[in-house]
């Protein structure tokens, strides 16, 4: 008779280290997008902009650019808009990361990189600005997922970095998140992005992608929450490695680990277990938890939790504040992860 072998680990006991070289080597699409292609992108026919974006990005990846259409009284089409970068503007869950990874895979180059905004800023922090420029200079493509617009210092560093890389011939593709159908907020994402990277705004062609969050299409919209007995059974039924941590303990531990190393916290783990989830009231704790959720979601790890539902982990005040977009994205990912 074969028994299920479950290894219990505690993330709070892990103190991972990550060198700059390891950071650079890790700049590839996350596991669920390692095989992403334009052909596998699921277009929602209710939103024509998705098909249009897919076609434009295929041209961008091939090195071509779509021509601007002429105006109403134009006698001939305008010349093609040749820009080194594209910015995918749209709500979370509409497939921007899939399309970004598709660009990465479609560009036939050896030196190309794919990472989140925080991974690039962490690279600068680990290696220094000058060394980072030298390592990335001359690369064919830089994909930046979830470009953050709320930290002026980091945004200025990234804008300067991208400017130097474009000058060396690097092409850029970036996304950022905005909540869909939220009082028109999504319509201003592109303007926010271009304003914040004003020195680089002329380098980007904006491509709008409308739609609803695909993670919510088949879910009831709420994170699954377990009783203590059900939680124990869920973890013990896993044939592999599961983490088991108190929510407060993990939140406190995240403050002692740089966000760039969160991926190492969950290395080798098959399921993440959290006991006693409560609503977060401290902004710094909440933002660190968002960064942790991003890494868990990228690794496609299921989450099992007790306490309050994880979609209630951010209070109303946080959801109406300046980091609203980050929290809504995290909620979307938490709901999906508790149902996987």
Characterise the protein shown here.
One of its GO terms (biological process) is cell division. The protein is of the alpha/beta class and 340 residues long. The two termini are 28 Å apart. The strands form two sheets. The protein has a five-stranded parallel beta sheet, sandwiched between helices. The model is unreliable at 179-188 (pLDDT under 50). It is built from 13 helices and nine strands. Helix 2 (48-62) runs parallel beside helix 3, helix 4 packs across helix 5 and helix 5 runs parallel beside helix 6.
Quick overview:
The chain is α/β, with parallel strands linked by helices. It has helices spanning 20-25, 48-62, 96-106, 117-127, 129-136, 152-167, 189-196, 228-236, 247-254, 262-265, 283-298, 316-319, 324-339; strands spanning 6-9, 85-91, 112-116, 141-145, 171-178, 204-209, 240-246, 271-277, 303-307. One of its GO terms (cellular component) is cytoplasm.
